[in-house]
Amino acid sequence: IDAGSAKAPAKILATPRRGRARWIAGVAAAFVLALVALWWGFDGRAELLAWRAARTTSTARAEQFYAEIVREHPASRQHENALLRLAQLQLARGSAGAAVTTLETLGRDYPAGWSAVEGRLWNAKALLATGDTARACVVAGTVPGAASRSVPTDFAAMTEQCAAFASRLAADSTQANGFATADTSRAVMPSGAPVTPSRKP
Question: For the whole model, what pTM was predicted?
Answer without folding.
Answer: 0.64
